[in-house]
Amino acid sequence: MARSDADGRLRRMELLAAELKQEGLCTVSGLAQRFGVSERTIARDLRLMREQGLPIDADRGRGGGVRLDHHWGVGRLNLSYAEAVDLLISIAVAEQMNSPMFLANLASVRRQLIASFSREKRRAVEKLKSRILIGLTASTYVQAGFSVPPRPIVQTLHQAFLDQVAMTISYRREDGETSQRQIEPHYLMLNYPVWYIVAFDHLRGSPRTFRCDRIQSARVTDERFRLRPNSDFRECLERAGLLI
To answer: Is residue 76 part of a domain?
Structure first.
């Protein structure tokens, strides 16, 4: 078996264990659909997990239901690099918001995560954190019109932001009109709970801000961009009333 295939199976088995622990009773067909593999592959994974000592029970009387003993813990958390980066950035956001609750151990968590990275990856994470800007809490007027962006749009934005590639979006303006834009997502701005993309807009040829929940559709391009200093965006942030 190729190394990449073996790594993929190990990762899938870790996620399977977490899924079984969280969901209680699952079906083999449901797990196969969840992970995008065949039922035969899931059955093989479950057999290997049992051989490794995981207490997985099968209930043939309920359509192939499987469960993990509720007394068993998932154990050591094994995050991928992308997942660890997301967690580190979330920690940085929480710390910058100065919330007094449930933050006592965040510094320790952050140190342990960073220690697991190579020096090169640590520098990359620090660069990403510097691209997250925290402003004031959004006004009640703005919050009244806020809605959570669809997951596919969030995932596309996530990819474009991390990879520093331009993205094309369909954007609904405040007046309800929709326009097509190609933008470079240089920074992300949080005016809690509303996220904004601080971008260079190719249509206008200048910096602009875009509310994430007003993006109707999005896709990444293959056009990379070089990061501009945040001072280039100060005027458009002030014009939009988004203070750093």
So the answer is: no
d(CA 8, CA 14): 10
Tokens of 80: 């991928």
**Using CB atoms within 10 A of its CB, is residue 150 exposed (0-12), middle (13-18) or buried (19+)?**
middle
Range of the domain at 95: 81-129
> Which stretches does DSSP call E strand in the chain?
25-27, 56-59, 65-68, 132-134, 165-172, 178-191, 194-201, 206-211, 215-224
- Dihedral sign for Cα atoms in the order 109, 112, 115, 118: negative
DSSP notation for 157-189: HHHHHHHTEEEEEEEE-TTS-EEEEEEEEEEEE
- Quick check: is 73 in a domain? no
Question: Burial level of 171, CB count in 10 A (0-12/13-18/19+)?
Answer: buried
Tokens of 175: 């007046």
Q: What is the DSSP letter of 232?
A: G
167 burial via Cβ count (<10 Å: 0-12, 13-18, 19+): buried
Write out the DSSP string of 75-110.
-S----HHHHHHHHHHHHHHHHTT--SS-TTHHHHH
pLDDT digits (tens, 9 = 90+) for 188-241: 999 989 999 999 999 999 999 999 999 999 999 999 999 999 999 999 999 888
Same domain, 87 and 63: no
In the prediction, which pLDDT does 161 show? Answer: 95
